[in-house]
Amino acid sequence: MPLPSLLQDNRVKAWLLLSPTILYLAVFIAYPIIDSFRIAFVKNGSISFEAVDFLLYSPLSEFWSALKYTFLLAILVIPTETLLALTAVIILFKRFRGRDAVIYALVMPLALSDLAAGLIWYSMLTGKGFLNKLLLNMGLISDPIIFFGYENRWLTFLAVYLAEVWRSTAIVFVILFAGAQLINKEVFEAAEVFGASFYVKLRHILIPMIKPSLQAALLIRTLFAFQVFAVVWILAGRDIPVLAGEAYYSIVELHKYDVAALYAIAIALLSASIGVVYIRVFRETLLR
C-alpha cells in the first residue's frame, strides 16, 4: 500500500499518535521493571533467591516495617488531602475578594521539591524551631516538644504526616479545581432557578461532575504515596522506614543492588494493584 494511502488509515494514524507514549513507557517504565527482575533474581548467570531471603529474614532488613509505615502513611495522608482539597474547591468555587491570593497560597507547595519541604518542616519542628518558640512564648508548654528521635517515633510520624499533607494537598487541589472549572455554569444557574440550595448543588452537581478528576487525583496521589522518600528521610531517617527509603539504604549503605531492586519491584506491584482497583471502582461508579 502506498505511504500516502497508508497514512489515511485511521488505525495507522492512531498508532502513530500513540507511538511517542508507547516509546516512553517502553524505555522508562517497561525496561527498568524488567531489568529490576534481572538484578533481583539473576546472579552469576543463574536464578537466585538470595535477595528474597535477605529481604524477608535478615535482621538488617526492615521490609515488614517499611511496608507497614508506607501503607499507614498512605491510608492517613490520602483521605486527609482529598478532604482538604475538596473543601478548598467548594469554598473557592464562588468568586470573592482575595480568591486568587488563596489559590496561589494553596498551590505554592508545588513549587518546592520534596527535599525542600522536608527541610522546612525539620527546621520548624526542632527544639529551637518556630513551633516550639511560639508555644513557649504563648505559655502553652514549659519545655520544647522533641519531635525527632527513635524514642519519639510517633511524634516523628506526626511530623511526617503533617509535612506530607502540607506538601501534597496542592496536587489534589489543582486537579479537582481544574475539573470544577470545566463544569458549565448554566447547570448551576438552572438549579438556582428551581430553588436548589447550595447543599443540593454540591451533592447533585459539583461532586458528581468532578468524579473523573477525583479518580485522576486519587490515582496519581496514591502512586506518589507509595514512592514517598525525601520528606521521611529528612525528618525520620530509618526511625520510620518506608519502601523507597529502604531501597536507597540498600544501595548506599549495604551495597545490595539486588535487594534494592526487590524494593523497586514491590513498589511497582503495589502501585499497579492499587491503580487497577481505583480504575475498576470508579468505572463502576461512573457508569451508574
TrEMBL record:
Q: What is its main location?
A: membrane
Q: Which PROSITE patterns match?
A: ABC_TM1
**Which keywords appear in this protein's UniProt record, sorted alphabetically?**
Membrane, Transmembrane, Transmembrane helix
- Name all ABC transmembrane type-1 domain ranges: 67-278
Q: What is this protein called?
A: ABC transporter, permease protein
The answer to whether UniProt assigns keyword Transmembrane to this entry is yes
Q: What biological-process GO terms show up in the record? A: transmembrane transport
Protein's organism:
Aeropyrum pernix
Q: Where are the transmembrane segments?
A: 12-34, 69-93, 102-124, 157-181, 218-236, 260-282
Where, subcellularly, is it found? Answer: Membrane
UniProt membrane topology term: Multi-pass membrane protein
Could you tell me which CDD domains the record lists for this protein?
Answer: TM_PBP2
Q: Name one GO cellular component term.
A: membrane
State the taxonomy lineage. Answer: Archaea, Thermoproteota, Thermoprotei, Desulfurococcales, Desulfurococcaceae
